[in-house]
Amino acid sequence: MNLTLRIWRQRSSEQAGAMTTYEVRDISPDMSFLEMLDVLNEELILRGEDPVAFDHDCREGICGACGMVINGQAHGPERTTTCQLHMRHFQDGDTIDVEPWRAAAFPVVRDLVVDRSAFDRVIGAGGYITAPTGSAPEAHATPVPKEAADTAFEHAECIGCGACVAACPNGSAMLFTSAKVVHLNSLPQGAPERESRVLGMVAAMDEQGFGGCTNTGECATACPKGIPLPSIAAMNREYLRALRKGAPGRV
Amino acid sequence: MALATRTAHPSALRTLWGSTIGKKTVMAGTGVIMLLFLIAHMLGNLKIFFGPGDFNSYAAWLRTIGQPVLHHSWYLWLQRTALVACVVLHGVAAYQLSRRDRAARPQRYAHRQPARGSYATRTMRWGGVILGLFIVWHILDLTTGTLNPRGEAGHPYEDIVADFQVWYVDLIYIAAMLALGLHIRHGFWSAAQTLGANSRTRDRALKAAANVLAAVLTAGFVLVPVAVMTGLVN
Question: Class of A116-245 per CATH?
């Protein structure tokens, strides 16, 4: 396959960027999108040019490191991560636009790499349980109802890639935050911090400059892990419940 | 001496108005109140099909609600105050959230996303502005009678008939009711989502309810100008 790529090039967060056109030849349809970019980068290095910077790690679709907006869609046309997107989903001669996640909370570091530490700060505000660590507890020590376990597991699938923010017209992190809140709040282990978790994480989410939710559903359509849209309703329920009850210890 | 171990927390109301979810909750709550009013308003409007006597006495009865505890028209003024408060809160929250949403994506994508959300979803903001302007015009037209071609207090039936015999009034009114239908179609389901009433099992039912509400309200309101235009009501 021969392709024309229009890729966002930006040397640093301070400098302005622009879409730059490249041609790539003899791309196998079995390559992943990242492998195709590797081919381009090898060529650029041979020509003495700067390779295109992009995030990647496991290349198995489970780490959440990679992510770019391909032809206006987060992670491209298939519902998967960019590393698991294969070139067979494109046609020979296609022009493909590649851009970084666009959000005020995700500043561009270089080219297609954005700084997603805003997600870490949301997690830091309550996306954990306060429990002594050490050897793993006996599995039956805390009984978990099957339904709660299923819900928690479904939401624990979130890999924090940021596709939801990239796809949302408002750059909102509601789906990400709801995945974390629902995951921990549906388990008995998460119960002691149920109220402070959702209040803290939502406050942190707003503080990072993410937009609000307008229920367009773009996030859930883009999510490579299939976190469903009603999760946002579940988080709203938790949030309003916590506001009514007040965080534990409040007088 | 006791150690100060407690940190001061802002009140729940302040937290609510200060957060994006809270502002959406205010929008959802005020939206539901306005929707309930619209259902009553539409049912009242349909009394026009039973003649001027029935309709005008219904309008006069509205002023007697709450008597003898409340004075004449007091209930109506309480309701008007509450509804204006709803419109203002709904609009202010929408404006503030929209500004925030725009700031959250300072640089747009060069390759625009193909629009996947429904038309109703995409027109919420400007549709809301149109409805806000319509409410002002509608009050000046049929409540105060300022813009009404007849505008006689106590004779709403005759005012309405005179009103809808003007072609551009029909146009404005019907266009606004279509905008209302679209707004309710996304707004009702969205309010359920915001208030946490939605879940995977209820999602389809809520969307269907939103569609039915939107269709019934739009049809119910549009029926009146159509009846005047066709001469069914005169």
Answer: mainly alpha
CATH 2.40.30.10 at B19-101+121-229, yes or no = no
Closest of B88, B92, B69, B68 to residue B80, by C-alpha = B88
Chain B residues 22-61 with CB within 8 Å of chain A: 22-25
Contact B22 A102 (CB under 8 A): no
**DSSP structure class, residue B148:** S
Contact residues on chain A for B6, CB-CB shorter than 8 A? 249, 251
Residue B2 predicted with pLDDT over 60? no
pLDDT band at B118 (very low <50, low <70, confident <90, very high): confident
> Chain B, 56-115: which have a CB under 8 Å from a chain A CB?
97, 100-114
Q: Which residue does chain A place closest to B193, by CA atoms?
A: A233
Q: Nearest-CA distance from A57 to chain B in Å?
A: 25
Q: Of B83-97, B152-166, B202-216, give the lowest mean pLDDT range.
A: B152-166
The ranges assigned to domains in chain A are 3-110, 116-245
Task: Give the pLDDT confidence score for residue B4 in this predicted structure.
Answer: 61
Query: Residue A249's pLDDT band (boundaries 50, 70, 90)?
Result: very low
Phi/psi region, residue A42 (left: phi>0; alpha: psi -120 to 50; beta: rest), is alpha
Contacts of A101 (CB under 8 A, 6+ apart): A67, A68, A69, A74, A114, A116, A162, A163, A165, A166
A243 to chain B, closest Cα gap in Å: 6
Nearest to B201 by CA among A230, A146, A12: A230
Would you call A104 an interface residue with chain B, using a CB distance cutoff of 8 Å?
A: yes
CATH of domain A3-110: 3.10.20.30
Ranges of each domain in chain B? 19-101+121-229
A67: alpha, beta or left? (left if phi > 0; alpha if psi -120 to 50): left
Other CB atoms closer than 10 Å to residue A87's CB: what's the count? Answer: 21
pLDDT digits (tens, 9 = 90+) for B40-74: 999 999 999 999 999 999 999 999 999 999 999 99
ipTM, interface predicted TM-score of the complex: 0.91
pLDDT of residue A153: 96
Which has more confidence, A94 or B117?
A94
Residue A24 DSSP one-character state: E
Q: Are A98 and A8 in contact (CB under 8 A)?
A: yes
Q: SS3 for A109?
A: strand
